[in-house]
């Protein structure tokens, strides 16, 4: 394996034996050749190479094999077949408080885990204040871990994982626990580690976090790599699979894992991706500039230009109600601007097959210069399955402001600034 590769997985498979009765395990041991177990293959023929410094998101439904894959990379599980090569110190946060002794205090667990990760006593002492400050659990640092809440558990575990100078960081759903302030702190710390060249594997059901944090992504389905590539394309295909599963649509040969496992360089993310139960369909998506002109195949818009989005909705099955909306997304698929008919106080009631609606949204684009995509969608209500969802329905460019102003954030809003001189007063010590 080249020095530029952090993790190499070759033909990795993992089989678990399931016994109906506990005594069957003993009988199999003393009666060789007489298997009494049902085999469950959690992973099948996984081939994956992750370059150093890459942040890879791993997505998939519960039971797809994500956690098993991470445990094999972390060295917790041994693969049934295949070869695993890991180049670098691994810090893994796989399960809530995994590796913590519940009878030890938080302080004792910091030193215990640090030694397991290969740090010396002096190295842990040098990092202790940073770990305790990041966890921010106060005097509980000297209380037994068994008295911690789930949020305190993950605070301490994450603080240890990201402050021991890992070369490879593995995080499995840990950021779903904890308060909002801590989640933001974790995101900032992970971004800092990514920028410093730490290879990161990130499992999450938060599609926004995967699109924001990761350079690439892998979708695991039924123990195999189903799809891989840039995060937005993987998330789109993951949501499509979830929708098809809910609708009971069987995978065809064209949608098989072998067909879907494609090379990242061959992905065409501007191609629209569609999903939904098709009770109604959004047709003839149009975007007009401030002059009312329809945009061309390579549309370009001015900074903060007012645009009109026009959608035609065709009804094929009875709908009890209807919500239609849109998102403007950046190149990573993060939603920057969006709304819908319900939130804009235009509720749509019951609709019958054969009816058609024309829906118009008018809004400005105060966005940083760059490329953006349009997503449109519709559903009967917020809890119902979408009847139609189109990612990348259109891609367009936003030009820089003609004033020469530099846009430092993703969205630029009018801001009032006032600077007033103040009289300085002497400060007595």
Automatic annotation (TrEMBL):
One GO MF term attached to the UniProt entry: ATP binding
Gene3D superfamilies: abc- transporter (atp binding component) like domain, P-loop containing nucleotide triphosphate hydrolases
tRNA processing found in the keyword field: no
Gene Ontology cellular component terms for the protein in this record: membrane
Domain ABC transporter as annotated: residue spans: 20-247
Source organism, top-level taxon: Bacteria
TM annotation in the entry: none
Position of the signal peptide: none
InterPro entries linked: AAA+_ATPase (IPR003593), ABC_transporter-like_ATP-bd (IPR003439), ABC_transporter-like_CS (IPR017871), ABC_transpr_TagH-like (IPR015860), Bact_Polysacc_Export_ATP-bd (IPR050683), P-loop_NTPase (IPR027417), Wzt_C (IPR029439)
Keyword annotations: ATP-binding, Nucleotide-binding, Transport
Family (UniProt): Belongs to the ABC transporter superfamily.
Protein name from the UniProt record: ABC transporter ATP-binding protein
Originating organism: Fischerella muscicola CCMEE 5323
